TrEMBL record:
Keyword tRNA processing among UniProt keywords: no
Entry's family note: Belongs to the glycosyltransferase 2 family.
Protein name: Glycosyltransferase
Organismal lineage: Bacteria, Pseudomonadati, Bacteroidota, Flavobacteriia, Flavobacteriales
TM region positions: 6-31, 283-305, 311-329, 341-363
Positions in coiled-coil regions: none
Length: 370
């Protein structure tokens, strides 16, 4: 019985790690109340980089132009599109005095690299405060810009927002995508509150232009196809310069992928950047995922072995209760309460998917952003 005993004691350690993480998440963000900071209409440049997004631009740009904000411009960056993206951008530019278009031609050195296109857009912007979103995103409200910009201050030069995905009925994939999005937000908001911000999402984030240029922009990872959002934030964010915005009116909403393969390809690009994070972030994020995986593997194995099953079940139940509290408060706050009852099932699906993505990335590198 030596082997089951060893597995049991490892399981106790794993559950303890999971509980420690979820309690930290719960108290640092889960039960934290959102605060509206509608202070001042500082001049804002909204940067939207688009590649083959003609239809989304037609549909979504009017909602950004409709923001209740007195002083903002929109910099539209056409990243070598092959559809009517540039034409649509030019039409909006002709009808709006606060839109600029940057047309990025194909460049062999930076082909397929969103960071190059974003850099040109940032250089073209005229204001010091930059807000980033994507062509397939819409603001949750016409006060989105006011809520995001209100988090800037003399000390805070980075604002991390929440980029939600639209809900689709009767779709397990949609629930999985939204579950992963909430879990990611729970972590990056919690880490920021704990004084160790490590990432943001390009669908909804902001920072000052001088922060970008004073840190040489994306130059330290320009060769990587992904990471225009998380790698840059991981590099420059700290406990004193980072603020978070999670009021409902500050959300953006994107259309989620509709096929598992396309979502996995998207996540492959995102996950490939994690190995370039700071060592402390790689360690703690890796420990969290490893403990998640081991929780399921060891829990199932010990129950099958019928070893101390009462204690195993008690530990499993305790861990799920604390996880559901942490995730539940966060999901409710982010408008995703329908996911709470499916948490164990969605977590198992997500862990399995992430493991397959990790293995796939070891075998071959993910390709350019579109």
């Amino acid at each position: 019985m030596l082997f089951p005993s060893i597995l049991f004691y490892i399981f106790i350690v794993v559950v303890s790690i999971q509980i420690g993480y979820y309690l930290s998440f719960l108290f640092s963000f889960g039960i934290k109340r959102a605060e509206s900071r509608l202070k001042k209409n500082i001049p804002i440049s909204i940067i939207i980089c688009a590649k083959n997004e003609a239809d989304n631009l037609k549909k979504n740009l009017p909602l950004i132009l409709d923001q209740e904000y007195s002083n903002f411009e929109i910099v539209l960056v056409n990243d070598s599109s092959s559809d009517d993206t540039l034409k649509v951008m030019k039409e909006f530019e002709a009808n709006s005095n606060n839109i600029k278009v940057v047309d990025v031609k194909t460049n062999e050195t930076f082909w397929g690299n969103k960071k190059y296109a974003l850099t040109l857009g940032i250089k073209t912007s005229k204001y010091d405060f930059l807000v980033f979103t994507d062509a397939d995103c819409i603001p949750k409200s016409n006060k989105w810009l006011a809520h995001i910009s209100g988090n800037f201050s003399n000390e805070k030069s980075i604002v991390l927002g929440y980029g939600a995905y639209a809900k689709k009925k009767f779709s397990l994939l949609n629930k999985l995508i939204r579950f992963e999005t909430v879990m990611t937000a729970l972590q990056y908001f919690s880490y920021a509150n704990l004084g160790s911000p490590y990432m943001g999402v390009g669908r909804n984030m902001a920072y000052r232009k001088d922060l970008f240029f004073n840190n040489s922009g994306f130059s330290n990872h320009m060769s990587l196809k992904s990471g225009d959002d998380d790698l840059f934030i991981n590099e420059v964010a700290d406990k004193s310069n980072t603020s978070i915005s999670y009021t409902v009116d500050s959300f953006t909403i994107s259309e989620p992928k509709t096929s598992l393969i396309s979502w996995i390809l998207q996540k492959r690009r995102h996950i490939s950047t994690a190995k370039f994070y700071k060592l402390q972030h790689k360690f703690f994020l890796g420990l969290f995922y490893t403990s998640q995986l081991l929780f399921w593997v060891l829990g199932v194995l010990l129950i099958l072995l019928n070893y101390n099953w009462q204690w195993v079940v008690a530990l499993v139940v305790l861990r799920f209760i604390i996880q559901l509290l942490s995730f539940g408060f966060t999901a409710k706050k982010l408008g995703e309460a329908d996911l709470i009852v499916l948490t164990p099932i969605l977590e198992l699906f997500l862990i399995t998917t992430q493991l397959s993505i990790f293995i796939a990335n070891l075998i071959s590198k993910p390709k350019h952003w579109k």
